[in-house]
Design brief:
Blueprint lengths: L1 H18 L4 H14 L5 H6 L4 H19 L1 H13 L3 H16 L4 H18 L5 H14 L8 H12 L11 H22 L8 H4 L6 E6 L14 H4 L3 E7 L2 E3 L12 E5 L2 H7 L5 E4 L14 E6 L16 H5 L2 E7 L2 E3 L13 E6 L1 H7 L6 E3 L9 H19 L5 H14 L5 H7 L2 H20 L1 H33 L5 H19 L3 H13 L8 H7 L6 H26 L3
Antiparallel strand pairs: 1-4, 1-5, 2-3, 2-4, 6-9, 6-10, 7-8, 7-9
Helix pairs in contact: 1-2, 1-19, 2-19, 4-9, 4-16, 4-17, 4-18, 5-6, 5-7, 6-8, 7-8, 7-23, 8-10, 8-23, 9-21, 9-22, 10-24, 16-17, 19-21, 20-21, 20-22, 21-22, 22-24
């Protein structure tokens, strides 16, 4: 009975993770409540994952990553990349992948990708090169670079923690560096040759044309006898007709209204709405619709500009609608459209719930873009303006990072204490403020990893792990022996990372794989490491967070990832299956 309950919960979790109808942290915590309520796991087991040292390691890495970004070190590196572009685009792309891979070996790959996106989009504009030629290689380099050390991805740290909890020797800081380097090298060679030829080249367009705003925006002239006169722009009768106010042209001056702006006679209101709504508005008294009067200059003037902004991982706008977040009041920018996974959303924008990686077309005064440029909650994707390089503080953070790695490698301190010390030192030495350090931590990811660790305990306690392990062994052993069974687990992990996060998929498969290894008399650590690496090379679809981040800024299509990522994933699975038995004999 308990096996059926646990496996049913797993299936429900997979569906909810895939559909994103409920936030992943709520799904995770709800599962823990049910499992503990049914006494499949004890309260101690339910919350043990949240108090594990690997949670401290992951949180500390987030803080150190944010401190490095705060000092402007990576922006400094991108400025140097611009000089390489004058010599060779191939050399620049190779350098981007190498730098990203090295940095990602010691920082969370999603964080590294997010840190480089804005600079690289700006760089692509500067050298007149499509961002689509740079961003997918960036994401892949960050993902594969994370396979080179234990701290390269949260998945690695979580798997090591689970392995230690199972009574096995935890994975060393550089234990996977050999096979990780080969994986990264193979991925880089692929992207510089086969992958580069398949990368799409999406030429830049005028933003209004790209988002097809001309079909949905028009000018409304307020006649002298209009009942709209004196009404507040954002609460006028026009807004009740599902029209959105963009800006106002008054006495030849084009400006953005605020919440205090009132409509005057002869105002020209720039409004957005679907065609059916605009046809109905024509019947409204006191106004005149200027058919086909819209020109691109109406949306962008000397005092008003259009730009794209992206929702980064640490943004508190995620899972909130544009209306709930009071976007206009908070940032002083008007949202005209939302680009998500190749689809442009233009209607009922206020009710659109924002997701990680969404790109918003916004309109605002130039000074407003300067004010929000360093915000943690939105990233402006336009001409790159490097953060002032704080050399002294940058060197302090690098020194703290290096000392933590050295102390952990030499086992002078436990890894958790070493990296926590480095994070605290960065705050004490004012390389980053306490508030920014707190905001840098991805609490949703920590809840997911802590909760899925407990789910692993439920798989063991209920007998679900043993049940599945016996089934997989019976099916796969006659086909390919121990290697065949291991390959089956790696492929299953890759498939499961499509609807679930990498860490969650690895932690679901891990208890089953460890049980199977014990039944076969094979090395459980070899199985754990293969699954851990398999979770990191799943590049078939853009569901990996680093790929989600580059999807819209790169103007990619879903098929771009399948076409380029599938052969690379197959190639890397082959590398894992060949080298894991060499480094960790079965």
């Amino acid at each position: 009975m308990e096996i059926a309950i646990v496996l049913s919960l797993l299936l429900i979790a997979v569906v909810l993770f895939a559909t994103e109808k409920v936030s992943i942290e709520l799904v995770t915590l709800t599962m823990l409540i049910i499992l503990a309520g049914l006494r499949i796991i004890s309260p101690e087991e339910a919350f043990a994952g949240f108090s594990s040292d690997f949670i401290i390691i992951i949180a500390s890495i987030f803080i150190l990553s944010a401190a490095l970004q705060e000092t402007g070190i990576l922006d400094f590196a991108v400025v140097r990349l611009a000089r390489l572009a004058d010599k060779s685009n191939n050399l620049m792309l190779l350098t981007i992948m190498l730098i990203t891979g090295v940095v990602s070996a010691f920082m969370n790959n999603t964080t590294v990708t997010a840190m480089f996106i804005t600079p690289l989009v700006g760089l692509s504009k500067r050298i007149n090169m499509s961002a689509s030629k740079l961003l997918m290689p960036l994401a892949y380099a960050a993902i594969l670079g994370g396979t080179c050390t234990l701290i390269g991805t949260s998945t690695n740290v979580a798997v090591s923690g689970y392995v230690a909890k199972a009574g096995l020797e935890p994975i060393g800081l550089f234990e996977i560096s050999g096979i990780g380097f080969v994986i990264f090298l193979v991925g880089t060679i692929y992207m510089m040759t086969v992958g580069q030829r398949m990368l799409p080249d999406h030429a830049d367009q005028e933003l209004a044309e790209e988002y097809k705003l001309q079909k949905y925006v028009t000018e409304v002239v307020v006649l002298p006898d209009s009942p709209l006169i004196g009404q507040l722009v954002f609460t006028s009768e026009l807004t009740t007709l599902n029209l959105r106010m963009l800006n106002v042209i008054r006495a030849k001056e084009n400006f953005l209204p605020d919440f205090r702006t009132r409509i005057r006679a002869n105002d020209i209101l720039l409004v957005e709405g679907d065609v059916d709504t605009l046809m109905k508005v024509k019947e409204t008294k006191g106004i005149q619709i200027m058919a086909d009067a819209l020109i691109s200059e109406d949306l962008e003037t000397e005092n008003i500009r259009l730009a794209e902004i992206m929702i980064p991982r640490q943004s508190n706008l995620i899972n909130r609608t544009i209306k709930e977040s009071e976007f206009l009041r908070r940032f002083g920018l008007v949202v005209l459209a939302v680009s998500r996974h190749g689809e442009t959303l233009r209607s009922k924008l206020g009710s659109i719930e924002l997701h990680l990686g969404d790109v918003l077309l916004v309109q605002g005064a130039p000074e407003r873009f300067e004010q929000v440029r360093n915000s943690n909650h939105i990233a402006v994707l336009d001409e790159f303006e490097p953060v002032f390089f704080k050399k002294k503080k940058g060197l302090i953070v690098i020194a703290c990072f290096a000392l933590a790695i050295l102390a952990g490698t030499l086992e002078l301190l436990p890894l958790s204490i070493a990296f926590l010390s480095a994070a605290v030192a960065s705050i004490l030495l004012r390389a980053i403020s306490t508030e920014k350090a707190y905001n840098a931590i991805d609490w949703r990811l920590l809840i997911l990893i802590g909760g899925m660790t407990a789910f692993g305990a439920a798989m063991e306690n209920s007998g679900a792990a043993e049940f599945l392990a016996q089934g997989i062994v019976q099916v796969m052993e006659p086909i390919g022996g121990t290697i065949g069974i291991l390959a089956g687990f790696v492929i299953l992990t890759v498939l499961l990372t499509q609807p679930m996060s990498n860490a969650a998929a690895a932690l679901v498969i891990l208890p089953v794989a460890l049980r199977a290894a014990m039944e076969l008399g094979a090395d459980p650590r070899a199985f754990a490491i293969a699954i851990m690496l398999g979770a990191s090379v799943s590049l078939v679809t853009p569901f990996e967070p680093a790929c989600i981040l580059v999807y819209s800024p790169g103007k990619y299509r879903f098929l771009d990832f399948i076409r380029i990522g599938t052969p690379l994933t197959v190639l890397l699975i082959t590398v894992i299956m060949v080298l894991v038995p060499v480094f960790w004999p079965l």
